Amino acid sequence: MIRRAGKKYFTPLEKAPDEVGGGYQGDDGSSKPPSSITVRGRSSLTGFIWLVVFSVTLFVISLFWFLFTEQGAKFTARLVFSRYCSIDAVSIAHAEGNFLDVLTLRGIVIRNVRELPAGSIISIRELKLAVRHGFEVRVDKACIMFPGNNAVIINGKYEQGVFDFVVRAPRLDAVTMAGILPRKDFFSGITGRISDAVIIVKGTPEKLSLNGIFSVFDMARGRVSVKDSHCMLDLSVADIFAIPAVSGELVCNDVLIWLDGSGMNKVNIQYARLLIGKDDYLNPELEINNGKLFFPGSDTLFFYGNYREGMVTASFYSGYVDIKAIGSLFPDNRILKKTKGALRNIDITAKGPVQALEINGNFITEKISINAFSGRDIPVSFALSLKNMFQDLNLNGTVMFKGGTVSGNRIAKIKITKGRILFSGNWRNPELDFKGNSLVERTKIKVSVRGTAEKPELKLTSEPSLPEGNLMIMLVTGKSWKRSQESIGMGKIDPDIALDFIDYFLFGGAGAKIAEYLGISDIVLRVDKTTKKMGVSKDISDKVAVTYGIEQSKTAEERTQLRQEVKGVYKVTDTFSVEGEKELESEKQQNNFKTNENLWLKYKKEF
């Protein structure tokens, strides 16, 4: 309110008494406000001020106790460590200094850390903390003791935003690593240890480098184990407090790998380098130089190669490899179990992505056998494309045979003049194209196989000319044949028999259909599954043949009875022959024999 020349003027923040109803007016009509309102307001303000002063004082005293006293520093440190375990699991023997200057903690022991395997203990001989020139840390002999006498020792400092630490691990087993590393599933089922590890950690949180060495001993998963290797590590880690990006390399020298528990099959790699790219550290590159694969009874198999940007490049070569040794690496492979022999002059290359690998090469079969089938001195070359190897294999390409011979226990030798197997996706049913020559006694036989493995087309020709059925018998037996017209017709070869012949001749099958259907000399003369009867015959000369047969049966008393039969035939002329027969019967529980002898004169005449 302003007075001027006897008049009252009110400021904008003031109001005239008539604008507010004539000012304050009490119950008694007076315009003076009561004094109690003023006293109560002053009392509330005073109490609030005292509360603030008390709280600030308590906070300052507490802060001083935490920061500037030994007991307070101990409690604060225990409180910080209790973030990873219970506060009762932390003990500190001595504290000196304060957080604002330099705090030294000695004799720190931390137990039951949540992120470590049960029973682990962390002990720190001396830990210094300072904040005068920024946050600084010095660690003197921090030791992490794991179960099983495993330990990691850390020394170093963090000053002015730079790490400078040395990490040592005299011994650290795979079970312990599985318990402390993020990828626990990666180490599942792995045994063994690393030792003599020394890793130097330097740099800033934005770019940290790890350089060091370590050795690997008896690191195994399943049948494969790394017995010994000396490794060097050179890694760079960016943004360790954000999303880390890892790059660098791991170099391993003199790597010794056992491919089975006995150490009979083993690999030695002189130099192996794993390169991790910054932009794609989950897809590392691999380089291998001077690799050697040792098999029992074989020459050394040398190999080298690399894996870069998803592409494989590898080469393998050896002078001689025993197939039995290869089969020992794949004990569940039924084909390799049945295969015997060796390969020589092996030279193989592999290129392309893993899911569409191209394999080219050549080798010579020294002698290879599968069941009754065998091949010798066969030069083989191939160019194959393998897709979806680990799922449903899709195989394309060609396998070429450039000579050599194939035969069996009883079959004639066939010289290969041309051989090709063509794969077009389904590896179980390739196309066949084989040509070969054979000489059975004085008969020259030409063999041609075309079609597919499931539906082969067999063609046999000879000089002098003979029916195909006859020629097939001659190839299977390796001899000229004589048999009755009732056993086989003289026309085209039945497709089922042709299929069994191809399986027997080329793929090592048993040839059961041939034996049962033909009943040919030197294989099976008679096959009777109900009476368990079988026999063989032998042509001694053009005029004399001998047959031996054996039959097993059951008597009424459930005794096993054997019946043996020997026959001899002498052909006097084309129409007249003499045949003799002798039978011997015996029971396995008695050593008595019954003999039955017969002699016939046979005369054959066609009208």
How would you describe what is shown here?
- The protein is an alpha+beta fold and 607 residues long.
- Among the domains are: 148-294, no CATH class; 408-517, no CATH class; 526-603.
- It is built from eight helices and 31 strands.
- It has helices at 36-68, 70-81, 174-180, 323-329, 334-338, 468-477, 495-506, 512-518, and strands at residues 2-4, 7-9, 90-97, 102-111, 121-130, 136-146, 150-159, 162-173, 191-204, 207-221, 224-238, 245-258, 266-276, 285-294, 301-308, 311-322, 339-353, 356-370, 373-387, 394-401, 405-408, 414-425, 431-440, 443-452, 456-463, 526-528, 533-539, 544-554, 560-571, 576-587, 593-603.
- The chain has a 23-stranded antiparallel β-sheet that branches. A six-stranded antiparallel β-sheet has the order 26-27-28-29-30-31, with no helix packed on it.
- Helix 7 (495-506) packs across helix 8 (512-518).
- The chain starts with a strand and ends with a strand.
Strand percentage lies at: over 45%
Number of helices: 8
Gap between N and C termini: 163 Å
Spans of 5+ residues with little confidence (pLDDT < 50)? 1-5, 8-22, 482-492, 510-532, 588-593, 595-607
Percent helix range: 10-25%
| Helix/sheet category | alpha+beta
Q: What's the quaternary structure here?
A: single chain
What is the overall silhouette? elongated
* Cα Rg: 47 Å
What is the β-strand count? 31
Compute the average pLDDT.
74
Tell me the major beta sheet.
23 strands, antiparallel
